[in-house]
Amino acid sequence: MIPILLALLIILAVYTLASADLLHGVIALSGISLISALIFYLLRAPDVAITEAAVGAGVSTVVFVWAIRATTRRASPVKNAGSSSAAVLPEDESL
Amino acid sequence: MSGRARRILFLAQIALCVLLVAAVLIPVFLSSMPWPLSARDYLQANGLAESGASNLVSAIYLGYRAFDTLGETIVLLVAISGTIAIIAHGGAVLAQGYGLPSGTASEPARHLPPKTRTELLEVVTGKLGPVVLVFGVYVMMYGHLSPGGGFQGGVVIASGIVFLALGSRVDASNSLTSPENLVRIESAAFALLLLAASSGIISGSGFFGNPLAGAGLTPVAFIITLNAIIGLKVGAGLGFMCIAMLGRGK
Amino acid sequence: MLERILILLLFLIGFAGIVGMRNIIKKIFGLTIINSAVVLLFIVEGSRIGNSAPIIDAEIGLVVDPVPQALMLTAIVIGVCVTALALALAFRLYKAYGSFDIDEIHRQVHRES
Q1: Total domains, chain B
Q2: Do residues B74 and B26 share a domain?
Q3: For residues B89-99, b (16+ Cβ closer than 10 Å) or e, as one string?
Q4: Each residue's pLDDT tens digit, B62-74
């Protein structure tokens, strides 16, 4: 049971880092917190489970959503989206 | 250098970094050192009698390792003040230094802008907020008997405060979710924690000792007091941080 | 043993996120994932020596080790504060340079100097 949940955590972690929309990443991150809380409950750590659920679903998500709403949702800048940073680096060297 | 080669080089550098960290960590992770049993055995035999709390986690962080809890609350205080300072006040100074318009500095907002609230949000969070707050207080006050305690109850209370702030009407004044009151609660809770911790010195039972041990105050009463103080401090601090951040729009 | 390998993988994914991502918010995601992995490791290892929650009752078997649970309780609360501080710094960087991309920020810093 625990290894299955941990594998799910790894999938969510990869999705968090790979998603192009930062808001999707935040939702996957609170999913990580939720599954962690379930694991803590199954491993007989109810105190940690309460804390992780409240922090991951409430406080942490609010803080991340604030930061993304106040700035931008896109993970990569518009100019060189899809391509590598080679488009910007040559003019860097010319400076 | 072409873009593709540069990208491959970048990926190779990342892979090298990860491999190096893995080389350090794999022996630690794969060692078969047995977990030490002495702390568990001692706590299971003597924890209830010595601290009075049947929840051993509460017994540890308010009894055996209470000094660590004091340091942890200081870290919490510093992190929250730093965050607020960077967002609100330091931001104005930085904006001047970079020649940015001063509008980028922010103040903790009392209410969300009207366009962000919907009927659903208002009904659900406004009705759920008080229930979550009551649950948080329950978790905080019964931490010595059941799963819970100051930190657990504090974060649940912070969630309840965020719910109330999201659900409160634009014009209704809500004294619990105003940043000034939350700051006052947090400062008062920290002063109370220091007072409760050092009251043991006066009566001779040491820092974070039970101050009225000779006068019939059971150890569990002291643990309940500390739980309530820490819960108020964590709840007010995290709630203040969230409300200060909620007020920022584009 | 399988749990340890999976947690190590989770830790390494978070580390790769910190090192390899160009977006600062993605780096903070990696920080949070590493925090989760460390908490998971402590709880999983501490729960091997017992089979009931660390709440003393009339008749229970051996409890799990409560010491790592008390440690991780404070680690979670500190972790969210560190995340908030990092996000506040990222917000300030975005307001100063208009981008989360570290290459873009690097370029603008060089242009100023």
Answers
A1: 2
A2: no
A3: eebbebbeeee
A4: 878 888 888 888 8
Domain that holds residue B26: 1-31
Same domain? For B119 and B4 the reply is: no
Interface confidence, given as ipTM, is: 0.86
A38-67 exposure pattern, b = at least 16 Cβ within 10 A, e = fewer: bbbbebbbbbbbbbbbbbbbbbbbbbbbbb
Q: Is the pLDDT of residue B204 over 80?
A: no
CA of B87: which chain A residue's CA is closest? A67
Name, in order, each residue with C-beta under 8 angstroms of B194's C-beta and a sequence gap of 6 or more. Answer: B70
To the nearest whole Å, the CA of C58 is away from the closest chain A CA by 17
* Tally of CB atoms within 10 A around C89: 16
* Residues A42-57 pLDDT 10s: 988 888 998 898 888 8
Chain B contact for C58 (CB, 8 A cutoff)? no
Contact C19 B147 (CB under 8 A): no
Q: Distance from C103 to chain B by nearest Cα, in Å?
A: 13
Neighbors of chain B with 3 or more C-beta pairs under 8 Å: A, C
Identity of the amino acid at C71: L
* Distance, CA of A26 to CA of A73 (rounded, Å): 11
What is the secondary structure of B75-126 as a DSSP string? Answer: HHHHHHHHHHIIIIIHHHHHHHHTT--GGG-----SS--GGG--HHHHHHHH
Are B243 and B179 in contact by the 8 Å Cβ rule? The answer is: yes
> Does residue B38 sit within a domain?
no
CB-based contact A36:A70 (threshold 8 Å):
no
Q: Is there a domain that residue B228 lies in?
A: yes
Is 0.90 surpassed by the pTM of this model? no
CA distance B7 to chain C (A): 11
In a domain, B46, yes or no: no
Sequence-distant (≥ 6) Cβ neighbours of residue B6 within 8 angstroms: A84, A85, A86, A89
| B85 and B206 assigned to the same domain | yes
Residues B181, B60 share a domain: yes
